[in-house]
């Protein structure tokens, strides 16, 4: 039975609200999917429900009619795929991201909104432009996970309550904050470690900042060239080139986020060692590995 255009439109609009999604970015995908259900022969009296799961659009429907069910399952798979490339918030091109250990699909701008960008201005600490505390208000700190995270306890003079802030090293300007915490809060061991780190930073030939400590860059997290890498690479040049290309391709947008980081000094004579041709060849190799 053919359904009228009005009946289809009404079916789509009334079922759209049965989808539990964190934003309106997938609305047009859901509308298209519901439309395809109609065309496939879905009974418009049957409600369709769905939600976001693992960053993809899930829809829990099936039909006892085997031929129809096959079509419905194909349509569902198509939209799981499409939703995995579409920002859930705004509908622009997106990528799968982990936000507070949840999987979600977001464009770069909406991903950036989920990241705490720290700023330190005259001992005032701001997160995403908003003042949160002054370093004088820190009452104690806990350094955890091999200096990857700090918990700061803040006692404000305005309130008796102690506030807690967690900061992690992937948040832009984490090291700037670490370096701004008054020394007496550190244990002797931590004091020695952080002091030695900030005083002994070497040049990172990969990302181009003075940010290497104990043979690994604390900014881009890449290992500096050393002979143990000869197991995988013919020589230093080959290694640096490849890792520079990884940073340039920036699959997970980590470098894009780090552009907000001012913790380390940029090296004025940093050299990009790969050329356009090598980059294209490398991208092709990565694509082939993905297939
Ligand atoms: Zn977006
Ligand atoms: Zn680096």
Q: What would you say this structure looks like, in words?
A:
This protein has 291 residues and is an alpha+beta fold. It has 3 domains: 5-95 and 102-106, no CATH class; 116-193, Roll (PH-domain like); 201-291, no CATH class. Helix content is 35%, strand content 21%. The protein contains 9 helices and 14 strands. It has helices at residues 5-16, 27-40, 66-83, 108-112, 174-180, 188-199, 236-249, 254-258, 276-290, and strands at residues 19-20, 50-53, 56-59, 95-99, 102-106, 118-121, 124-127, 130-134, 138-144, 149-155, 162-168, 202-203, 210-213, 216-217. It has a 3-stranded mixed beta sheet with strand order 1-2-3. Helix 1 crosses helix 2 and helix 2 (27-40) runs antiparallel to helix 3 (66-83). The chain is flat and about 75 Å long. The model has no long low-confidence stretch (mean pLDDT 94). Bound molecules: zinc ion (ZN) (2 copies).
How is the secondary structure organized here?
Elements: H1 5-16, E1 19-20, H2 27-40, E2 50-53, E3 56-59, H3 66-83, E4 95-99, E5 102-106, H4 108-112, E6 118-121, E7 124-127, E8 130-134, E9 138-144, E10 149-155, E11 162-168, H5 174-180, H6 188-199, E12 202-203, E13 210-213, E14 216-217, H7 236-249, H8 254-258, H9 276-290
Parallel strand pairs: 1-2
Antiparallel strand pairs: 2-3, 4-5, 6-7, 7-8, 9-10, 10-11, 12-13, 13-14
One zinc ion binds at residues 87, 89-90, 92, 106-107, 109-110.
